[in-house]
Amino acid sequence: MTDVLLQMTDIQKSFPGVHALDNACLEVKKGEVHGLVGENGAGKSTLMKILTGIYKRDSGSIKFRGKEIHVNNTRESQQLGIGIIHQEINLMPHLTVAENIFIGKEPMKGLFLDKKKANDDAKKMLNALNIDIDPAIPTGQLTVAKQQMVEIVKALSYDSELLVMDEPTSSLTENEIEELFKIIRNLKARGHGIIYISHRLDELPIITDRVTVMRDGQYVGTVETAKVTKSEIISMMVGRTIYEEPKVKSTVPADAPIVLEARHLCGNNVKDVSFCLHKGEILGFAGLIGAGRTETMRALFGADPLDSGEIIVNAEPITVKSPNDAISHGIGYLSEDRKGFGLAIGLAVRDNSVMANLDAFLKGPFTNDPKIDRTTIDYVEKINIKTPSVSQLVVNLSGGNQQKIVVAKWLIRNSDVLIFDEPTRGIDVGAKQEIYKLMNELVAEGKSIIMISSELPELLRMSDRIIVMCEGCITGEMNIEDATQEKIMTLATSKM
Amino acid sequence: PAVAADTPYIAMISKGFQHKFWQTVQAGAQAAAEKYGVKITFDGPPSESDISVQVDMLNAAMANNPAALCLAALDTESVTEQLNTCKEKGIPVIGFDSGVPNAPEGSIISTASTDNEAAGALAADQMAGIEKVMAAITGATKDAPIVLSVISQDATSASITGRTTGFVNRMYEICNEKQPGLVAVTGHDKWKKASESGDVAIEILVSIAASTSVTDCQTAAQAVIQRGPVGIFCTNSGSVDGMLSATADGSDLDREKGRYKDLVVIGFDSGATLLNAVRNQWFHGAVTQDPYMIGFYAVELAVKTLNGEKVDPIVDTGCQYYTYQNMDDPAIAALLYE
Amino acid sequence: MEKNKKFNFTKILAPIVLVLLYLFFSIFGRNFFSDDYLINILDGSYYIGFMAIGVTFVIITGGIDLSLGTTMMCAALLGGAAFNIWHWPMIWCLLLVVFVATAIGFLNGVLVAYLNLPPFIATLGTQMMGMGFGAILTRVQTMRYPTFGTPEGWFKNFFYKTTAGFPVGIFWLFGFFLIALILLSKTKFGRYTFAIGSNREAARLSGIKINPWLTGVYTFCGFCCGLAGIFYAAVYTSIIPSTGNGMELLGIAGVVIGGTSMAGGTGTLVGTLIGVYIMSVLKQGLMSMGLQSHWQTFFTGVVVIGAVLLDQYRLKQGAKVKK
Amino acid sequence: MEKNKKFNFTKILAPIVLVLLYLFFSIFGRNFFSDDYLINILDGSYYIGFMAIGVTFVIITGGIDLSLGTTMMCAALLGGAAFNIWHWPMIWCLLLVVFVATAIGFLNGVLVAYLNLPPFIATLGTQMMGMGFGAILTRVQTMRYPTFGTPEGWFKNFFYKTTAGFPVGIFWLFGFFLIALILLSKTKFGRYTFAIGSNREAARLSGIKINPWLTGVYTFCGFCCGLAGIFYAAVYTSIIPSTGNGMELLGIAGVVIGGTSMAGGTGTLVGTLIGVYIMSVLKQGLMSMGLQSHWQTFFTGVVVIGAVLLDQYRLKQGAKVKK
Ligand SMILES: Nc1ncnc2c1ncn2[C@@H]1O[C@H](COP(=O)(O)OP(=O)(O)OP(=O)(O)O)[C@@H](O)[C@H]1O
Ligand SMILES: Nc1ncnc2c1ncn2[C@@H]1O[C@H](COP(=O)(O)OP(=O)(O)OP(=O)(O)O)[C@@H](O)[C@H]1O
Ligand SMILES: [Mg+2]
Ligand SMILES: [Mg+2]
Question: Which residues cross the membrane (chain A) (predicted)?
Answer without folding.
Answer: none
